[in-house]
Specification:
Helix 4 packs antiparallel against helix 13. A two-stranded antiparallel ribbon has the order 1-2. A hairpin with a 2-residue loop joins strand 1 and strand 2 (10-13). 59% of the residues are buried. It is mainly α. The protein has a single domain (4-497), classed as Amino acid/polyamine transporter I. The chain has helices at 17-21, 31-42, 52-86, 93-140, 146-163, 165-190, 217-227, 246-271, 279-282, 288-297, 300-334, 353-370, 382-413, 426-443, 451-470, 480-486, 494-497; strands at 4-7, 10-13. The protein is globular, with a radius of gyration of 22 Å. The chain contains 17 helices and two strands. It starts with a strand and ends in an 11-residue tail after the last helix.
Amino acid sequence: MTSERKVGSVTYRDVSGEYFEQRGLRRHAGAWMLWALGVAAVISGEFSGWNFGIGAGGFGGLLIATIFITIMYFGLCYSIAEMSPAMPHTGGAYSFARSAMGPWGGFITGLAENIEYVVAPATVAFFAGFYGQSVIETLFKVTIPQPVIWVLLYVIFVGLNIMGIEATMKFSIVICFLSLAVLVFFYVLAIPKFDASLLTNIPPEGNGTPFLPFGVGGIFKAIPYAIWFYLAIEELPLAAEESMDPKRDVPRATIWGLVTLVVAALGVLFLNPAVNGGAEVVGASGEPLLEGFRAVLGSETSAAILGLFALTGLIASFHTVIYAYGRNIYSLSRAGYFPSWMSKTHGTRKTPHVALLLGGLVGLGLAFWLGSQYDAETNTYTGTGQALLAMAVFGAVISYAMQMQSFITLRRKFPNIARPYRSPWGVGGAAIAGILALVSLVSLFLDAAYRPAVIGIAIWFGVGILYFAISGRKRLVLSPEEEFAMTKGEHGHPETEGYGTTHVADTE
């Protein structure tokens, strides 16, 4: 008979050693693998999606928004680079918030991150559909419906993630370097054809200027798209229990990954709209980099061939964010916040196959549901892709704000835990990043076209919290994240203590 213990408003149930044996992971990743995982998770943001920020705020609006968002991500990444090696758990953001703010804070943060990582692959699939359909029609004169591309992507890359951590990491390295090579090749081709006047060719409205054609308000509307330049770099703490040396490698990979992405983002922001139809064309395109290749090469076929390579960037993020939602669902389920059957891992491959399949079904279902907005005349789903992007950003910025509050609280609440890395920006940097995250959350509601999607995902978020209030809080498990929090950092270190040994008294 399972024994239970009540701690505050939640209840823990004791589990046998078999429970954790059925939920085992395998350590494999080194620093370069983690760097590639982080960069690959984000790199699609440099291939598509970011450009809608030009349509929302003009080049100047997106540039200013990107500066502020870059500051936010440095504050965020420095903070998680400190928290992750101190709490090297697969739970990542949930783990930080659990120790800082208790079970409710942990669940809310983990749920917000879950929304981000489940919706983001669906968003990337939409953009991949644009690139893929255009390239295939040009090269092979065949039209493949975009939903077929979505299904193929999910089947192939959920399957690849299930194959094992070794396959996941090897593919991440290869696809990461290919994606960066495509971007560098574009930069080399575009620099000689750079035309600064094209950056500001959107006709101003009202009191707008060529630099800010939609006024100051356009800066705020561009914020979600500036976030798309970097969204998901913060996933690396989720790999802590599969890293060979998480205390050293996760901080390094996080910071160097962000630096890599800053350089990539600035390259496409300045060069992509300055070589073809300018900001006016790029700001509405579902395939901005392909538009750029068409302009610099002057050949539709050559551009399509390079567009085929440009798909690598979208595939890179699709593959690696699937990894992220799998570990997020796994960790929340292992601790009982989600139903425990979701966290079982494959017996030999040691991958959370149930979580990977479940997240894929939800993401694909969401894509098909929103895909009902198909426009037969233009053969596009553009509005759907932007709506999904806003939904992913909604979950992301809530988790960012919660993680920054966690950082500040942990500095005060757990001052003596081992911190192998310390943020050079400290509490002040975390506070600035948290404030910018909240500003970003508000900005999501400014665009009336996608406000219904944001409201819809907010309702989904509320339903998740209601589930925890009614059911989830009554069946928690003493996973490493929970043990760390309840013993104030003395226990809950899976890299040295393993799993399944309880060091927790009956009261927290």
